Recover the amino acids of this structure.
């Protein structure tokens, strides 16, 4: 049963990602990306990383995609109004090199993960971590104790992003 | 570590200083902040401390790298001239604040002990750079450069993060010494290493090489360097490069040294490729700024050579070279800013070699500073750049990187050709440049950097013995 | 007790129910409702001035800024979640750490407000 659901979500993720690649309409691509994000979130949950799944939905689906669609709506579409259709179209360039590099990368990762021996690695390094009831609790404890410096520095990073975004996107007075 | 906290707070302070009506206070304040951070940094000399559960490590190496970064920042801020006090469209408070924040990221990249800190530091540095690149909002080229840099840079960061994840999966540790122990022990044949580790190392190297713009990941560099406001180009080509190479060196020499036999071949050929591509392309440039972009790629190639050699002296070679290169680059850009703004073509600053024609006649100081910096970049004896190259070549010779050595010597000769172009233009060509008025602090910076370059060229042991 | 992905089965069921409801109602209205098309009936507004141009015009960049700020604070909220789950275990130390983190973002927010980025009419 679990396997069937897993495969279904895999197909959803990969299929919608391919849709993003093939479609020429940017808005369609954005909506297909929504499905990809949801599929990835489901895969996270099934892999036992429930906090990551929630983050994925909250940040990517709830935030980034809204931003993306806003961006599409903001874009001046004056050039693309042939036949009453109002859409932003994209072109596929450098198909040969793109497919070659992506294929090579896929081959590399495929080989890596088939040879990885995940179960041995998990026993070797991560035995105690995978025994917890939920990842949220251990993430929280780790974040506020061992990893407190990265946590605070991320605050600085977010502030830079805040200042930079408002500086770049605001109109010059 | 203390300098990281101090600089973060100073950055925030700078943001809010911008709400004061007096903009003139910003630049002295920023200079004071950086000097204060420099003092905090030097106070860590001869101590070895691990901070916050092995997140950061301060020792003499990190103090040295931090000093080079802070000195470069200090020089860049000193030539920023308050970002044109007369211009109402400039936002000096934001510029200075973001520069201070980016230095936080750079310092984290040279002090990291945990790969997580490397990633966050790199991200802070990169995000700040994207913003600074696009800070000239009314200039289309600046916008294009920012977008290009952002897209490529985000992609490279993603690749680096993927590599970190794979290395973590293979070794079970984020700490660079933990990874190093695992790799070395496995080298001894205790257990079989999965290919995950190798792919992880490969992806991390690719991500970092992108940030320091080594071939074949250098395609963004000329456009971004040319599109960004010149002052930020100077900042980018010094601070980012130093921090990137420090991070690369620490990772390769501590974590992955057990697999030296594997990654050395990759870097061996990439180094030669970087040197050839950058120097040959630089010969054909008409724009001084674009030439400097290719020059920065070629210096990445030289630095890559000493990282590849992985000798005991490598760290001092990187430090000396970064210092010499940073000083010379900042001087060159400082002169260029003055000259190009003085001579505009079609309402835009003229950044071609022609702009320097006849510079020596009425502006002997500028012409001399430019000549010294160019000679230093070319590696002519009696300048700091010569010793930088000398140390790097001797490292490579000790390791026996013959192909790289031959290529590097040949390409240094090619470099002499294009570095002499602006010197010839300013001393031998006729031109009508009136005397350019220079602010005192600007003049002082130029004098100091020129003297430093010559001094280090005469007596390299002054700093080499410290590093 | 180990965490099982099947704990999330109710969410999947809920999702299925939501989608099924939407599909069912849309199909039902499609089949059940009568369809009479005419030019007047298909107009956007039956009376008033005839509509000109397109509804999809470029919108102000200010909306975009709000969206960016939303994403940033969204990320901040995500960091609060694991802290809140362990609120008691982390105690005062965790609280102070969170205050510093929030303080950094709050300063950024004060900056944005003082800068007048969020002022709608300038």
């Amino acid at each position: 049963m679990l396997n069937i659901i897993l495969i279904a979500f895999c197909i959803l993720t990969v299929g919608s990602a391919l849709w993003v690649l093939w479609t020429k309409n940017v808005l369609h691509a954005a909506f297909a990306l929504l499905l990809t994000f949801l599929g990835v979130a489901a895969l996270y949950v099934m892999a036992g990383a429930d906090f990551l799944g929630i983050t994925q939905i909250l940040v990517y689906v709830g935030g980034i995609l809204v931003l993306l669609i806003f961006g599409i709506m903001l874009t001046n579409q004056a050039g693309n109004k042939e036949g009453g259709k109002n859409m932003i179209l994209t072109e596929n360039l450098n198909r040969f090199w793109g497919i070659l590099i992506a294929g090579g990368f896929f081959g590399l990762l495929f080989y890596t993960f088939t040879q990885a021996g995940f179960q041995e690695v998990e026993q070797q390094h991560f035995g105690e971590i995978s025994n917890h009831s939920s990842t949220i609790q251990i993430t929280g404890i780790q974040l506020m104790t061992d990893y407190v410096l990265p946590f605070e520095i991320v605050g600085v990073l977010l502030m830079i992003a805040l200042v930079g975004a408002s500086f770049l996107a605001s109109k010059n007075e | 570590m203390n300098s990281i906290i101090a600089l973060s707070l100073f950055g925030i302070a700078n943001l809010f200083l911008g709400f004061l009506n007096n903009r003139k206070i910003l630049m002295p304040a920023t200079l004071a902040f950086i000097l204060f951070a420099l003092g905090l940094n030097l106070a860590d000399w001869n101590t070895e401390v691990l901070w916050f559960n092995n997140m950061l490590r301060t020792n003499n190496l990190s103090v040295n790298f931090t000093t080079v970064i802070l000195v470069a920042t200090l020089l860049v801020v000193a030539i920023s001239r308050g970002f044109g006090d007369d211009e109402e469209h400039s936002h000096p408070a934001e510029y200075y604040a973001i520069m201070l924040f980016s230095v936080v990221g750079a310092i984290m990249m040279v002090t990291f002990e945990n790969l997580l800190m490397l990633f966050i530091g790199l991200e802070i540095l990169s995000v700040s750079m994207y913003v600074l690149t696009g800070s000239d909002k009314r200039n289309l080229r600046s916008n294009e450069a920012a977008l290009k840099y952002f897209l490529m840079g985000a992609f490279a960061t993603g690749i680096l993060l993927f590599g970190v994840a794979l290395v973590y999966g293979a070794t079970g540790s984020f700490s660079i010494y933990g990874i190093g122990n695992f790799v070395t022990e496995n080298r001894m044949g205790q257990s079989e290493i999965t290919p995950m580790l190798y792919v992880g190392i490969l992806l991390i190297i690719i991500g970092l090489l992108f940030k320091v713009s080594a071939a074949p990941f250098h395609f963004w560099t000329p456009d971004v360097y040319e599109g960004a406001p010149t002052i930020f180009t100077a900042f980018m080509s010094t601070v980012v490069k130093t921090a990137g190479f420090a991070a690369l060196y620490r990772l390769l020499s501590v974590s992955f040294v057990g697999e030296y036999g594997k990654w050395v071949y990759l870097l061996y050929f990439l180094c030669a490729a970087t040197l050839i591509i950058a120097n040959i392309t630089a010969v054909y440039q008409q724009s001084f700024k674009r030439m400097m972009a290719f020059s920065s790629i070629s210096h990445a190639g030289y630095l890559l050579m000493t990282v590849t050699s992985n000798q005991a002296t490598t760290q001092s070679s990187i430090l000396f070279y970064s210092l010499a290169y940073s000083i010379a680059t900042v001087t060159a850009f400082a002169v260029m800013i003055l000259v190009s703004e003085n001579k505009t073509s079609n309402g835009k600053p003229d950044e071609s070699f022609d702009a320097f024609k006849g510079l020596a006649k009425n502006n002997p100081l500028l012409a001399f500073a430019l000549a010294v910096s160019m000679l230093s970049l070319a590696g002519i004896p009696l300048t700091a750049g010569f010793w930088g190259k000398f140390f790097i070549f001797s490292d490579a010779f000790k390791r026996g990187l013959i192909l790289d050595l031959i290529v590097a010597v040949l390409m240094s000769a090619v470099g002499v050709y294009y570095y002499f172009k602006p010197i010839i233009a300013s001393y031998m060509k006729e031109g009508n440049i009136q005397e350019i008025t220079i602010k005192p602090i600007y003049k002082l910076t130029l004098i100091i950097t020129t003297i430093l370059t010559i001094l280090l060229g005469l007596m390299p042991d002054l700093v080499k013995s410290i590093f | 007790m180990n965490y099982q992905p099947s704990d999330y089965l109710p969410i999947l069921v809920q999702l299925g129910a939501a989608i099924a409801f939407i599909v069912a109602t849309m199909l039902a209205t499609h089949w059940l409702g009568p369809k009479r098309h005419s030019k007047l009936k298909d107009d956007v507004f039956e009376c008033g001035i005839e509509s000109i141009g397109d509804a999809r015009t470029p919108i102000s960049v200010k909306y975009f800024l709000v969206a960016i700020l939303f994403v940033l604070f969204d990320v901040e909220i995500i960091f609060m979640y694991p802290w809140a789950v362990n609120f008691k275990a982390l105690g005062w130390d965790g609280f102070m750490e969170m205050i510093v983190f929030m303080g950094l973002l709050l300063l950024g927010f004060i900056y944005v407000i003082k800068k007048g980025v969020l002022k709608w009419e300038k």
